[in-house]
Specification:
The complex is a heterodimer of chains A (about 200) and B (about 350). With about 200 residues, chain A is of the alpha/beta class. Helices cover about 35% and strands about 25% of the residues of chain A. With about 350 residues, chain B is α+β, with helices and mostly antiparallel strands. In chain B, strands 1, 2, 3, 4, 5, 6, 7, 8, 9 and 10 form a 10-stranded mixed sheet that branches. The chains are: A alpha/beta (about 200), B alpha+beta (about 350). At the A-B interface, helix 2 of A face helix 1, helix 10 and helix 13 of B.
């Protein structure tokens, strides 16, 4: 399973290219940090990797990628449902009975450093806890491809640090993970870096 | 999983049963109470029309009405009828200066002259004015020169535009055979043209002597026609069921749209649309039950507080409004569930 980008570049109609000549191979069990200043096309590239947007230049080959899960900048959950229920839902949707789904969800919460929040309602979680819950929930889906868009942008420094630490937990779950970020800490947690400034049109 | 998730949504307050159930309940209750009030007013008006004698028609032909034929009208479905004949006035010993006009009537006439109180048995029905003047009650008797006459009951004959003549009078029941002066008949629902059945009560001689025959409405002051069906169809609340349907549809739709972010998210996490709609419908069933209970209580109160003349019609109207509200909210939930787009997660997330 992998995704290969060959000479990929993109320009919106009537605009200058955001980036050009990007060639990279994305593989499972790695966390790719997609970095670059605001407006460099990080979200655009995520959409291209997801297959939602056709690149203006180059092509994308996807082998064995069956499912894509996104983790968005704003953590969104169900205010009055418990943290563990959030993670158990995708497991039950795949047919696990609640008891087993709850057990697997509890283990995932521990992996992401929020094991103690299991029974707390979503509305009572801090921003950092909520964002880590989103990561744990995305992983519960066992997606082929997990795309994480600016996970620390809305957080204070302390929470951002905790989320950055958790990004490492995304590796070794069998998914290809791409994290768009401009946060140095988050960047440091990634196993590979794709820097769009290197691909900015000259 | 569907049941388990739905029940957790309800238990944790995620469903917001109180808000959606309350809103749908208010919509249904308002529509239902409004319609019940409007229909009850029509029922009351119809009852007044009938009680005032506006739907009663009289054929007058002195000594030319066949009592048996008149009484036979009452055997037709929806008809009530009775014959009447003037008799020598009754002179009460207490009131010798005011002879009381007295009429022999067939039994059916008592259906058309509602008694305030009627003990039955033998005897006469006295008008309220006679009863007052002589100070008698049902069960008492009037002393006359030819002996006591038992009063079995009292009827009222208010001056509301109905034909005069019975305000101070006695009605004495008689077997229907023989000749009478008048035949009275009415139909439920009211029918203005009663000439057919009434003319059929005339004895052959009357047809030759047509000058002495007249046909009249007992009380023309309320107009000739009631037109209950048209008033019902044109009542201001006739669209109450539509408003209930539309209003509850909006509530159902809102109940889902308010959660579009978490629902789009659930789709993104691999929950199927069927599972999603299944959960929404179970949660709908819960809050709609709350709405129905509230609306049913309000409707029952409106029926009980009404005239009581036609509780069945009012209950039917309420059932229609509640039924349409229930259907509307379910349609709204289904439309809402079908409208959630996984891709829109990104837009919803930003619009939050």
């Amino acid at each position: 399973m992998r995704a290969v980008l060959r000479g990929v570049g993109h320009a919106y109609p009537g605009g200058n290219p955001l980036f050009t000549a990007l060639t990279v191979t994305l593989e499972p069990d790695r966390v790719y940090g997609l970095v670059g200043p605001s407006g460099s096309g990080k979200s655009t590239l995520l959409a291209i990797v997801a297959g939602w947007l056709r690149p203006t230049y180059g092509r994308v080959e996807r082998n064995g990628i069956e499912s894509v899960r996104w983790v968005l900048q704003n953590p969104h959950g169900v205010a009055r449902r418990s943290a563990i229920d959030h993670v158990a839902l995708p497991l039950m949707a795949r047919g696990l009975p609640r008891r087993r789904a709850q057990a697997a969800a509890a283990a995932l919460l521990v992996d992401f450093g929020i094991g103690s929040t299991a029974d707390r309602q979503f509305r009572d979680l801090s921003g950092g806890e909520a964002q880590r819950l989103m990561l744990a929930r995305a992983m519960a889906c066992e997606p082929s491809l997990c795309l994480v868009d600016e996970p620390t942008a809305q957080l204070d420094q302390h929470s951002a640090a905790a989320v950055s630490q958790s990004l490492a937990a995304l590796a070794s779950k069998g998914s290809i993970v791409v994290v768009a970020t401009h946060d140095p800490q988050a960047r440091a947690a990634c196993t590979d870096i794709i820097d769009l400034t290197d691909h900015a049109p000259t | 999983m569907i049941l388990s998730e739905a029940s957790r949504d309800v238990a944790t307050g995620t469903t917001r049963s109180t808000i959606w159930g309350g809103l749908a309940g208010v919509v249904m209750a308002a529509c239902s109470v409004f319609d019940i009030g409007a229909i009850d007013a029509l029922v009351v008006r119809a009852a007044e029309f009938v009680n005032a004698g506006a739907s009663t028609y009289v054929i007058e032909a002195p000594q030319l009405v066949d009592g048996k034929a008149c009484q036979a009208i009452a055997t037709l479905a929806g008809f009530q009828a009775g014959a009447m004949r003037e008799e020598p006035a009754t002179v009460a010993t207490l009131l010798p200066s005011a002879p009381i006009p007295t009429y022999a009537v067939t039994d059916g006439l008592f259906d058309l002259v509602p008694a305030i109180e009627d003990l039955g048995g033998t005897g006469v029905l006295a008008s309220a004015e006679v009863a007052d003047s002589l100070g008698i009650m049902p069960g008492g008797s009037i002393e006359t020169s030819s002996g006591p006459v038992r009063v079995r009951g009292v009827f009222s004959w208010p001056p509301d535009g109905r034909r005069r003549g019975l305000a101070f009078a006695l009605l004495a029941p008689e077997v229907s055979a023989g000749r009478f002066d008048e035949c009275w008949a009415r139909r439920t629902p009211p029918q203005a043209d009663m000439s057919g059945p009434l003319l059929a009560t005339l004895l052959p001689r009357a047809v030759e002597d047509s000058d002495s025959v007249s046909l009249l409405q007992l009380n023309p002051s309320l107009g000739e026609q009631l037109n209950g069906a048209r008033s019902f169809a044109g009542r201001p609340s006739r669209w109450a069921w539509c408003i209930s349907l539309g209003g509850c549809l909006m509530v159902g739709l809102a109940s889902v749209r308010a959660r579009r972010l978490e629902l789009a998210s659930a789709l993104h996490l691999g929950v199927s649309r069927g599972q999603l709609i299944g959960m929404m419908v179970l949660e709908w069933a819960w809050w709609t039950l709350i709405a129905l209970i509230a609306a049913a209580i309000a409707s029952a109160w409106a029926v009980v507080a009404g005239s009581g003349a036609a509780p069945r019609a009012l209950a039917d109207a309420a059932a229609l409004v509640l039924g349409q509200g229930t259907a509307g909210s379910l349609i709204g939930v289904a439309l809402g569930g079908a409208s959630i787009r996984e891709r829109a997660l990104f837009r919803y997330s930003k619009s939050r």
